[in-house]
Amino acid sequence: MNKFLIRTISGIIILLMVIFFTTSGGKMLLVSVLLLSSIASFEMNKALKRIGINYPLIGQLIIGFIINLLAYYHEFKYLLIFLAFVVIYAFISAAVGNKYSFNDMNGYLFSILYVNFLLSFILLLDKKEYIYVVYCCAWGTDTFAYIFGALFGKNKLIERLSPNKTVEGALGGILGSIVLVLLIVYLRGMEQPIIWAIFAAIGSVISQIGDICASAIKRKAGIKDYGNIIVGHGGILDRFDSVLFTLPIVYILSIIIGR
Fold first, then answer.
1. pTM exceeding 0.85
2. Rounded to an integer, what distance in angstroms lies between the CA atom of residue 259 and that of residue 113?
3. 186-208 pLDDT per residue, tens
4. Burial class (CB in 10 A: 0-12, 13-18, 19+), 5
């Protein structure tokens, strides 16, 4: 019970901080995303080293800074051009240099795209309600999946990768995501609730896939959590793994609706 209480209190504190930075927006949000991106980069670098993948962390931190800066100013075409040159640099480093292998550079590119690029979509979503939808899809799904799984869970979802997840929990997570997103739609006076409900279900499924994929990496690396910066929850990646996959889905929706 003490562990559950600590986890709950820690979760509430993190949620309040996230709401504060999201509501503040602007440079405050940029700084928070830069900080999250840097910590998450360190966590992924540390995890991949355990499976024999080594690459320059300082390079990723610099690249992550540039990615988030371009996202903040909504320079998406320049962001893609920059990423293209990052890919070229990684390929040349592996092909010509002797320090890093192709396997190392694949891990390097994966970490940049998975951590820095996907997280930068928070800055591309310039309306608060869209970011709230991401949180509802990701963390709402996680919360409701835990509750439904604890109450009704019998059938394992993918036991090999995540032994505690159940089909009943997954369905409960989807339902919870839809309810929370529709609540945001109502409170924020947003239009087209049916479309939002459909994307809430899609976002919920994607967020659960993100969570399972992150668990697969941890299992491969032989670790329980990516870090311990958040008491009772692990690292930044442990809390944002489902968010990372959900962000581009909501960004696509924001384009369809017309921002």
1. yes
2. 24
3. 988 888 889 889 989 999 999 99
4. exposed
